[in-house]
Amino acid sequence: MTERAGPARERAVVVGAGPNGLAAAVTLARGGLQVTVFEAADEIGGGVRSGELSVPGVLFDHCSSTHVMGAGSPYLRTLDLASYGLEWLWPEIDLAHPVDSGGAGALYRSVARTAEGLGADGPAWRRLFGPLAADAEALTDAVMRPLLKGPRHPLRLARFGLHALQPATLVARRFRTEAGRGLFGGAAAHLFGPLHQPLGASVGLMIIAAGHRYGWPVAKGGSGAIATALAALLTEAGGRIETGVRIRSLDELPPCATVLLDLAPAAAATLLGDRLPPRVRRAYRRYRSGPGAFKLDLTVEGGVPWRAEACRRAGTVHLGGSFEQIAHAEREVHFGRMPARPFLLVSQQYLADPGRSAGDLHPVSAYAHVPHGYTGDATAAMLAQFERFAPGTRERIIAASATSTADLERGNANFVGGDIIGGANTPRQLTMRPRIALDPYRTGVPGVFLCSAATPPGAGAHGMSGHNAARSALRALGRS
């Protein structure tokens, strides 16, 4: 695989052209290496692809849709991706969470405006998220790197950590209204795990704080624009991408100085085979996948008829009811049981990006949190959640397309069992993934690094796992 003499010294290979693989490739190319990316699918992007389904002109994102951490990515912000066609667009309201009484909590970029809409919970929201939003840029920089390396902003990270270490169930006690508790609970559910566990509040706190700083934008023309922009930047830097090429062994790669794998740990272990040190192989094989997602893409005439006005103007809507109902649903999923009322993340990207619609026909996508590898059909339970907060939704649906956990894995091998977050967010894996190591990107095979969402900082179209891994590879080559 890796020859250290001749022209191979200047070459690098990346396996996988998702956002992390592409970010890694750009970093390596800018570091002076000749980079080739091999992608098994016929299209680049991994979790950031877009396309039409059953209705011409109605554009859906295949997976990742709203990009709070993409817009806030410390690495992507250093790249002039706008020159390569990436444009962020924001809805009027970033996030809404309807409750059964008919109202909704609404998240705006402004902490003050958000707090004002939460009534009695406004002061508590300001106290909690005012300081976190003010520190969001430093916090994002701190948490999007391996924590064992030592924080760049220790005091700010410590202040965040005092809250993030707590279960979400404890943080939720700060809020008294159904809308305030629900708004926080829906964000906390992005953990894809039990809200009562330590660090259960961490993901929700981070994405709300980042949302107050960067908003919850979408990519104009679909999430595929992120991959297209990174690919164009890579090509300009001298790199190249080959699609439709599935790599099963290091022996299939051309001679090169370094290899980065945008793969799930188990897939990396299979590809590396006996080259992998036994202790690393055991860690990769033991790495826990997260719960699954069941996706429903709806073409809706006139949009969803939400009872709450805020939901009609929100790019993202969380459906789960009260905080307690969300916590119950997430606990059921964690223990492998399909909840009767699953938590749903609904994307209405067309509100920020009208070009995704065809006249009055609009794309509405929803994910339900389901058990890992769930083999059932969650469509009925998901539509029931829509009807709960938007009666009459079914009558407006012109076309529907369901994507099961198995379908997700067939479309992207990294989505094992429908896990779209790169691994279970257990307390250990939140802080030390995919294994306990000062440099979690090193595989133990000389010149080979892991750069998927199974490495810090985890899921999201932020490219930081790829960038961090590529910097580790460059350091090993003496190019840092």
Automatic annotation (TrEMBL):
Matching entries from SUPFAM superfamilies are given as: FAD/NAD(P)-binding domain
**Which InterPro entries does the record associate with it?**
FAD/NAD-bd_sf (IPR036188)
User: What is the protein name stated in its UniProt record?
Assistant: Dehydrogenase
> Organism, per UniProt?
Streptomyces caniferus
